[in-house]
């Protein structure tokens, strides 16, 4: 999908599109009205939208509904002015509110993710997810972090990763993260049930992706594997084993 089309599909794009469409509609109505009322050509009718004095000059040499045409011209001009003000207000509001900047960043992120293959999608950028992301990045793997929390999402961006803000249990969110082209999906949230659900959705969207699921208790291991997990990680067990080895 082209970047402009991506931006148009965003909320701010739809907000800006409304006054633009309204302006275009007023132009079309104005041209059609002038052609009908004064029996002039399309080019001359279009020019009348810009220069209302041309209407008066026209009726000095031509007969016709001068008063109705002038009244219609005033209404059209008012419509154009209001549509222009609406457009300007919308753009300024979005710009000062940071929405345009945010939408452009999302478009750039989507375009960058579209170019990835065999990357790692990590759902949850807490301590566990952050550690996995750092390790994968050090090994030269591209990482896409999926986060619902804006603070953690901002931290992931600061760490140099691409970020999709959303719930990893949603198909559209995982698709946005490029899970269908990813090499590995890591469900790293501090909630075993949520991670199992992510594994179900991820393995259905991409049967070839390697699914790693974090769980908080051994009782979830069998459930996670049935949900599509290729590997189940219990951080407390792993930490205990490492400490035992050092002891």
**Tally of DSSP helical segments:** 12
Q: Which series of helices and strands comes N to C?
A: HHHHHHEHEHEHEHEHEH
Quick one: CATH class of the largest domain? Answer: Alpha Beta
Q: Roughly what percent helix?
A: 55-70%
- Please tell me what the overall shape is: rod-shaped
CATH architecture of the largest domain: 3-Layer(aba) Sandwich
Rg calc: 29 Å
Write down the overall mean pLDDT: 85
CATH superfamily of the largest domain: NAD(P)-binding Rossmann-like Domain
Number of strands: 6
* N- to C-terminal distance: 55 Å
Beta-strand percentage?
5-15%
Unreliable segments of 5+ consecutive residues: none
Q: Which strand order do you get reading across the main beta sheet?
A: 3-2-1-4-5-6
Would you kindly provide a brief summary of this structure?
With 247 residues, this protein is of the alpha/beta class. 64% of the residues lie in helices and 10% in strands.
Description:
This protein has about 250 residues and is an alpha/beta fold. It folds into two domains: about 5-100, Helix Hairpins, CATH 1.10.287; about 115-245, NAD(P)-binding Rossmann-like Domain (Rossmann fold, 3-Layer(aba) Sandwich), CATH 3.40.50.720. The protein contains twelve helices and six strands. The protein has helices at about 5-10, 10-40, 40-50, 55-60, 65-95, 100-115, 125-140, 150-160, 170-175, 190-205, 220-225, 235-245, and strands at about 120-125, 145, 160-165, 185, 210-215, 230-235. It has a six-stranded parallel β-sheet, sandwiched between helices. The longest helix has about 30 residues, at about 65-95. It is rod-shaped, with a radius of gyration of 29 Å.
């Amino acid at each position: 999908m082209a970047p402009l089309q991506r931006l148009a599909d965003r909320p701010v794009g739809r907000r800006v599109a409304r006054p633009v469409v309204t302006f275009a509609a007023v132009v079309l109505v104005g041209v059609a009205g002038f052609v009908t009322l004064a029996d002039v050509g399309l080019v001359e009718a279009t020019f009348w939208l810009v220069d209302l004095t041309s209407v008066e000059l026209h009726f000095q040499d031509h007969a016709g509904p001068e008063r109705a045409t002038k009244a219609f011209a005033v209404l059209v001009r008012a419509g154009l002015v209001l549509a222009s003000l609406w457009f300007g207000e919308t753009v300024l509001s979005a710009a000062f509110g940071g929405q345009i900047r945010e939408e452009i960043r999302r478009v750039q992120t989507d375009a960058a993710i579209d170019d990835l293959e065999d990357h790692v999608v990590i759902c949850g950028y807490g301590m566990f997810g952050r550690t996995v992301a750092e390790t994968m990045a050090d090994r030269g793997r591209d990482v896409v972090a999926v986060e619902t929390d804006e603070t953690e999402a901002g931290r992931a961006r600061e760490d140099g990763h691409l970020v999709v803000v959303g719930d990893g249990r949603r198909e559209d969110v995982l698709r946005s993260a490029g899970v269908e082209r990813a090499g590995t999906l890591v469900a790293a949230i501090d909630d075993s049930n949520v991670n199992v659900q992510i594994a179900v959705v991820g393995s259905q969207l991409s049967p070839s992706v390697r699914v790693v699921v974090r769980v908080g208790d051994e009782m979830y291991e069998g459930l996670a594997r049935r949900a599509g997990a290729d590997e189940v990680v219990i951080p407390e067990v792993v930490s205990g084993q490492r400490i035992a080895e050092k002891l």
